[in-house]
Design brief:
single chain, 9-stranded mixed beta sheet, alpha/beta, 6-stranded antiparallel beta barrel
Length: 346
């Protein structure tokens, strides 16, 4: 299996730059058994779900912030604040990275052009920087500065008053650098209506890192080093998943990775334990040939070429079936990537 099997040509005008209203996106239905394709709208989703099905959501919340900065020489820079660390620090990505070495200082700019000085105290495992602020209060102020960290292929910034559109309506646990975009389509009323139809909902958490946007640059997927992210399935969520009488429907690839990371391999084929409670790091890289043990259906957006996300979707539905679905999506002018349309694989 080669990485170029997951490449495709996408007209740039199909990369969604702004979000539609929640629930207004289109929904491509891909039937795994036959390869058949249907064209619907996301509001039609309940038609394809059954009573006793269990939707599993990733309830992470985007907490990263993109902040303008100035280097000591007066040149502009950019800082992506990923997560607080220690009493006064932030783990961050900086651009240009080579310009910042431990011991140097950087000026971070607030919305009113106010400034905070930060000292670079270390380099993170993924090539980022550890920034130390003068006080804990100054560290916390930074969480309110800057802009939502939209993916690099989105060039239209969200107005501040619309930044919640890059959060799911059920976002709860802060810690992500990107949104679990399959969940952006849901409205609160749709979730209530689904529960009224005896469709259950469970929540897990996977904090999405910036590695999710990195394409696979190796010739063969098995040579790629998968990024690691923190994930959690609580005891209550595990009980709910294990007790499900219908299909396990994962909302997004991050939910798939969380569920499959907690999957149990049972010698006893009659065991009802699908997952165990889990909290920790996962670097699970799902590619074609992987045997799914938890997930029965998947709702996902349309992903970038050569991405680990596209490989996961292809592992679930089949390379040829996904290739045909993407071809149909392009021909029918679906919107792609984070603010784009969705696909249901059943």
């Amino acid at each position: 299996m080669r990485t170029d099997q997951f490449d495709f040509e996408l007209p740039t005008e199909l990369i969604a730059q702004t979000p539609l209203s929640r629930g207004d996106s289109r929904l491509l239905i891909l039937h795994r058994n036959t390869g058949a394709i249907e064209h619907r709208h996301f509001r039609d989703l309940p038609l394809f779900l059954n009573p006793a099905d269990l939707l599993v959501l990733n309830d992470t919340r985007v907490s990263a912030r993109r902040v303008r900065a100035v280097r000591a020489n007066g040149r502009d820079a950019e800082v992506l604040l990923l997560r607080p660390t220690g009493l006064r620090g932030w783990d961050a990505l900086v651009r240009p990275g080579r310009a910042f070495r431990p011991g140097q200082t950087i000026s971070l700019l607030g919305p009113d052009e106010s400034q905070l000085e930060a000292r670079i105290t270390g380099v993170t495992a993924d090539g980022g920087r550890v920034l130390e602020l003068p006080t804990a209060a100054a560290r916390d102020i930074l969480a309110r500065w800057g802009a939502a960290p939209l993916p690099p292929y989105i060039h239209v910034p969200l107005p501040v008053e619309q930044e919640e559109r890059y959060q799911t309506v059920y976002a709860t646990h802060a810690g992500s650098a990107a949104a679990p975009t399959a969940g952006l389509h849901f409205t609160s009323s749709m979730l209530y209506e689904l529960e009224a139809q005896s469709i259950q909902i469970a929540r897990v958490t996977l904090n999405i890192g910036v590695g999710t946007f990195r394409p696979v640059r190796t010739d063969f997927p098995h040579e790629h080093v998968m990024h690691s992210e923190t994930a959690e399935i609580t005891n209550d969520a595990a009980k709910q998943i294990n007790a499900a009488r219908g299909r396990i429907v994962a909302i997004g690839t991050t939910t798939v990775r969380t569920l499959e990371s907690a999957a149990q391999t049972n010698a006893d084929s009659v065991s009802t334990v699908r997952v165990m409670a889990f909290k920790g790091e996962t670097s699970l890289f799902i590619t074609p040939g992987y045997q799914f043990t938890v997930v029965d259906a998947l709702i996902t957006n349309f992903h970038q070429p050569r991405s680990t996300l596209l490989m996961l979707v292809s592992a679930f539905a089949g390379i040829d079936a996904v290739r045909n679905a993407y071809r149909a999506a392009i021909e029918n002018r679906y919107r792609f990537f984070s603010f784009g349309d969705a696909m249901l694989i059943i």
